[in-house]
Sequence to fold (256 residues):
Amino acid sequence: MFASEVSGGEVSAKLLTQLLWRPLPESLPAFERWLFPPPRDPAMAPGKDTEPESVQAQADRRVRARSVQALVRKAYLATVAEQDREHRPPASFAQAWRAHLVGLLAQGSAGPPGHAPTTINGSDLDLAWRLYELARRARQNAIERATPTPSRQVQRGKRVPTFEFSIVSEGESLGDVTYGICRPCGTGMLYRIEFAPDWQFCGFGRLALSQLEARHPDLTWYTTGQFQHARSFYERYRQSSTSPWTDEQQPCPHFD
Fold:
């Protein structure tokens, strides 16, 4: 699966999780040169007098790969943890992620949980930056390919219909939107808009609001008190929106 996903420069949305959290596959083309170094003597082609890699050597190689992966993942998680404060768009997020990784690699050692630290060598550095670049591309592609799903009706209250839709990338949900509408009164209520920390400040909030307007034109939209912390975002959005948005808390008497 990995070989087909990255061939031709294509990287799937799910690859970000696979690269950072799951065991690295030996078939991943970007790592082939590191995992299967060519023989020093060009005349020694595979299948001739080369000795197969020992079981211990294979185990050591996998431990080193896990150590490098843990550093790239740690740098990523540190960047995600800063999003509430920094509000970084995708390009700035990638730069901060890279800076965190530089700092971790500069420490000169790495080791996955349960193993003693090992000294980082040239092959480890090569793997770290290959892994970072693939993961960065995976995140960027997930953002660029994100699309909304159709609205689906859900149970919430009794007097107005309530709906949900998701923002997905290649079948993987990045966040959800829940809203209700009262057609007789011409009002809509945005109950909840939620994205995982990994996908915040990627433009999905604006995409979600524009979808509400496109699916239910001519409604006046309201938000709940949950969004007090995001008031500046809604204020900016209202300035360019063709639909009326209000900061009043009770759209009409039919909402619970």
The chain is about 40% helix and 15% strand. The mean pLDDT is 80. The beta strands are 109-110, 118-119, 147-148, 152-154, 162-169, 172-182, 187-195, 220-223, 245-246.
